[in-house]
Amino acid sequence: APQLPSASVSPSGEIVEGRSVTLTCSSDANPAADYTWYKEEERKTSSNESQLIFSSIQSSDSGRFIYAPQLLSVSVSPPGQLVEGGSVTLTCSSDANPAANYTWYKEDEESPKASGQNFIITDVRPEHSGNYSCEAQNTRGSQISTVHLVVVRDPSVKIMNIIRLTLVVLCLWTR
Question: CA within 20 to 30 Å of 63's CA: 72, 80, 113, 123, which one?
């Protein structure tokens, strides 16, 4: 499937009426992707051409060109290994027009865990470890990105359990 799509305009900056302007879409796909260009909700062109060329652009060509989510990224805060009892925020972002809707899934679970750009897990436990996927979707397509969480036991809990066990053994021994 097409991966890492991106769109660009040439020349960049201010567009002058009557000049040539090229919109280019690119993606990593095998076999090569087909491209469809939309202006607002109107289909502009559909072909295997990755470029939409305006040889003499007019003010009537102005508008929002629509595209599926691209450049999807997932971030974790705080980063790194998580200690049980804390909280973690997963954030999903993408470049999409219209704006994307986000849905969160945990590996091997059918139903979504959350919706929205941020997914917050409070009071994390080791069983929260695993792969979490964010799906960004709009009317033009979707893209998925995955992040791996590792939650470790709080060392102070382990020490407290050892102390409790030692006290129980001592109490039983002294009887």
Answer: 72
Question: Phi then psi for 114, rounded to 5 degrees?
Answer: -165, 170
DSSP assigned state of 84: T
The rounded distance, in Å, linking the Cα atoms of 61 and 100 is 24
pLDDT one-digit tens code per residue, 7-65: 788 887 788 899 999 888 877 777 777 777 777 767 666 555 778 888 999 888 887 77
Report the side by side order of strands in the sheet with 130-138. Answer: 114-115, 101-106, 130-138, 141-149
Q: Are 17 and 2 in contact (CB under 8 A)?
A: no
Phi-psi region of 3 (alpha: psi -120 to 50; beta: other; left: phi over 0): beta
Cis ω on the peptide bond leading into residue 5 (within 30° of 0)?
no
Instruction: With beta carbons less than 8 A apart as the criterion, state whether 45 and 28 touch.
Output: no
Element (H, E) at 19: none
Quick one: which H or E segment has residue 38?
strand 35-39
Which tens digits make up the pLDDT trace of 87-129? Answer: 999 999 988 878 889 999 999 998 999 999 999 999 999 999 9
CA–CA distance, 30 with 56 (Å, rounded to integer): 33
